[in-house]
Structures are given as C-alpha cells and as structure tokens.
Amino acid sequence: MSLYLILNITSFIVPFAYSFEKKMRFIKWWKSVFLSLFIVAFFFIIWDIIFTKMGVWGFNPTYHFNFTVFGLPLEEILFFICIPYASIFTHYSVLYFFPNLQLSEKVTRYLSISLFFISIVVLILNTEKWYTFINLIVFTGLLAYSFITKITILQKFYITFIVILIPFFIVNGILTGSFIENEVVWYNNSENLGIRLFTIPIEDVFYAFSMLFSNLILIEKFKKVFN
Questions:
Q1: What is the mean pLDDT of residues 41-46?
Q2: 107 inside domain
Q3: Which of 6, 34, 66, 175 has the fewest C-beta atoms lying within 10 Å of its C-beta?
Q4: Residue 227 above 80 pLDDT?
Q5: DSSP string, 18-48
Q6: Count of domains in the chain?
Q7: What is the DSSP pairing of strand 200-201 with strand 196-197?
Q8: What tens digit of pLDDT does each residue of 136-168 get?
Q9: Is residue 52 within 8 Å of 72, Cβ to Cβ?
Q10: Which parts of the chain fold into alpha helices (H)?
Q11: 141 falls within a domain
Q12: Residue 65, CA distances (Å) to 1, 7, 84, 213 in order
C-alpha cells in the first residue's frame, strides 16, 4: 500500500466510523455532505490537472501507485474526498460540543476585510506566480461572497478552521516532505511565494480554507433542500 493511500485512509477512517455515533449522528447529513464533496472535488481536480500539466506541482512515484487519471495519481483524487470529509466532520463535531462557539459578527467582518485586502495586495504583486495568483483569486472571491451572504458560516468556521489546521499540518506536512526522505507532492517554488510553514507552502493554508469553506456553503444549502 502506498504512503499517500495510507494517509488518505487513516485521515478518513476515524471520522467515518464516528459518523455513526448515536448522539451526533453525522450520517443524517451524508446526502448533503457527499454531494458537496463531489461538486467541489470536481472543480479542484480540474485545477489540479491543469497545474500538474503546467509543472506548478507534481507527485513522487515512490509514494503512490502507478495508476493515474489525466496525470493525477489515484491517491490524489481520493484526497479531495477523504481529507475534506475528515475536516468537515471536525468542523461539525466542534460545533456539536460547543454550539455557541463563534466570533462576533463585528470581529468576523473586520477579520474578513483585513484578509481580503492583504490577499489582494499579495495577489497584485505576484501575478506571475500561478499558485499564489489563482489561489488568492479563489480565496478573495469566496471571502467577498461570504461577507455579503454567508457571514454566519464564517463566524464559526474561522474558529473551527484553527482546530482543523492541527491534523492538516500533520498530513500535509508528510505530503510535502516532513518526517520522510522526499516529498510525496513537490512544488515548483517559482510559482509560489517560497514561504514554507515547516515544509508546507503558505498558499496551502488558503487552498485548504477555500476548499473546505466551499463545501460548507454547499452543505448548508443542501441541508435546507433535502429537509
């Protein structure tokens, strides 16, 4: 079994098992959760395929199976289901145990505005760096949209995202070369800021935020439709 597949399975298996827990019963939202996962994964996989072909990032065959789809290892495609599922489960678990945990609307708006303008400045100064540029376009677009219509989700997600970053740094750290001889996923540093959090490009944090927040927006929308 490849290292990349092991990381996917170990990230997914515990949240999946606890989804059947009788009190929280996360399985009752599965229709909304998996529909959103597949929709968001579709767009992020297209992004992934394009950037892989451009050489913005790539994959070390030592750590994944030889089977690929449009240049992506099977494990990379599974990543967009396994990791978001685990992260979204974490988000709702934190809120289950701490239902009143959220930032005030005022703090959320100030934080969003600050992040938006900082990101815009970095984006404008780095238009030649594809990962930085596209990543921050998606991030700022989501912030602008949520600032207008989804502020209540942001009030909670800003806090739960900090919790999610703990396993994120472990898993993504291994993927980018922490604790192992080489990277599972390599990055072309000419296409990013070159700033690493341990071995993780700083852009990955914004990438994760955009991917997970997109899922949450859709999940909350689908909950209303299916109920």
A1: 98
A2: no
A3: 66
A4: no
A5: HTT-TTT-GGGGHHHHHHHHHHHHHHHHHHH
A6: 1
A7: antiparallel
A8: 999 999 999 998 887 899 999 999 999 999 999
A9: yes
A10: 3-18, 30-54, 74-97, 105-125, 130-149, 151-175, 203-226
A11: no
A12: 8, 13, 21, 30
Residue 142 lies in a domain: no
Provide mean pLDDT across the span 91-116.
Answer: 96
Angle, alpha carbons 169-174-178 (nearest 5°): 95
Paired residues of 64 in beta bridges: none
Number of neighbours of residue 74 by Cβ within 10 angstroms: 17
Domain assignment present for 93: yes
**4: which 2 tokens?**
């990349």
Average pLDDT, the chain: 96
Residue in 61, 78, 66, 71 with CA at minimum distance from that of residue 185? 61
- Residue numbers of the domain that contains 20: 3-99+156-226
Instruction: Please report the pLDDT score of residue 96 as a whole number.
Output: 96
Residue 1's pLDDT band (cuts 50, 70, 90): confident
Name the β-bridge partners of 185.
Answer: 59
